[in-house]
Design a protein that fits this description.
By secondary structure, the protein is α+β, with helices and mostly antiparallel strands. It folds into 2 domains: 199 residues, no CATH class; 105 residues, hypothetical protein PF0899 fold, CATH 3.30.2320. It contains 10 helices and 14 strands. Strands 6-14-11-7-10-9-8 form a 7-stranded mixed β-sheet, with helices on one face. Helix 1 packs antiparallel against helix 3 and helix 4 packs parallel to helix 5. The N and C termini lie far apart (56 Å). About 8% of the residues have low confidence.
Amino acid sequence: MTNDSMLRDYQKKARDLAEVERALIDRERHRFSLGAAVEAASIGKPDSAPVSRDASEAISAALQLPPCGPHEFYLSARLLGAMLDHHGLLRRDLTTTPGSAGGFLTNTEVPDTILDALRPSSVVLTLGAQAMSFDRSAVAVPRINTASTATWLNSEGAQAVPTQPVVGSVAMTPRTVAAFTLVSRQFTKQAGTRGDRLIATDLAAVVGVALDRAAIQGTGAGGQPLGILATAGIGSVVGGTLNRAGLLEMQRVVAAANGIRTPETCGYVAPPATAETLANRPVVASSDRFAWEGSLTDGNAAGHRALSSTNVPTATVLFGDWSSLILGTWGVLRVQVNPMQNFAAGIIGARIMLDCDVGLRSASCFAAASSVS
C-alpha cells in the first residue's frame, strides 16, 4: 500500500469513527457507565453492559480493530470527554474505602481526540503544543531548517536569485507509557455517574501528567521520549535571582534565534514554588508590580501567559513558543481488566497503555533558566 493510499485509508477510518462518536454521544451519553463497563469486563460478560458493548463494537468496526476479548473493551475518547467534569477536583481515592487507591480508564480512537480529552490536565497542550496522529510505527515530520532567501530587484530586467530551502525532519517513534490502576468492584456497582466522572477525570490526569513530564523533562533513556530540557541547543539564561529583566532576556534569546513563530502560543512554565518566588519579586524596589502576576496556576509573566506545574524541575523556568512542540500519538488506548487482581478484597486491576512521542521543530524555540532562587 502506498503512502497516499495509507493516508486515505486512515482518513476514512477517522471519518467513520467521528460518525460513530456523534451517534453514541447523542444517543447513549447519559446511559453509558464506566463502572458498568468495568464490572462487565471483570466478570467476562460484556452483554451485561450492553451500551458499552455496543459502543466498543462500533468503534472496533470503524477503526478495523481486532475484536475485544471478554475482559477488555474500547472506549471513544470523545465519549470519555463528554463525561469529564473539567471544573471538578482530580481525585485518586476511588474505592469505597478511604485511603485505598483506585482508578480506571480507557479509550480507543483517533489520537488527537485523546489529547483533546487530556488537554485540561496538560500545561503543554494548554499553551499550544501541537497534537499529531500517526498510523505508522515511525514517522518523520517535515520541517524547514533553512528558509529561502528573497531578492530585491533594482531594475525591470533584474532577476530573482534562485534559492532553495533546506528541508529537514523531526523523527518520531512510538514509545509506550503504561498505567496500572485498581478499582474495587463495590465502587463500580455503587458509584453511578458521579463515579464515572471521577474515573474519567483520574484517567485524563494520569495520562496528561505523564505526557507533560515527558515533554518537559524526558531523558530520552529508559523508554522515555526526549523532552525540551534535555534537547541540545535550547537557549539558556542565568537563573539565580531571576526577575522581570531575566524573563525578558529569555524572550530575547528565543526571538533572536527566530524561535518565535506564533506569539499567541508563547508562554512560561515553572514549578509552583518558583512561581511563588517570582510572584513575590517586585519589578523594581517598592513597586506594586511583580515578575509573575495573577494566580500561580495560570498567571502572566513579562506579557505572556505563565502556568505552574509540578512536572517542571525544581527552581526552573522554561519559556518558548509551544506550537513548535509536537505530541504524537499512535493507535488507541485500550483497557484490559484483570478480575483476579486481589480476589480476597474484590479489587480489579486495569492496565492502560498509550503509544506516544515528543518532538521539537526547533530547539531555538525554547530557553530555560535553572537554579532560580
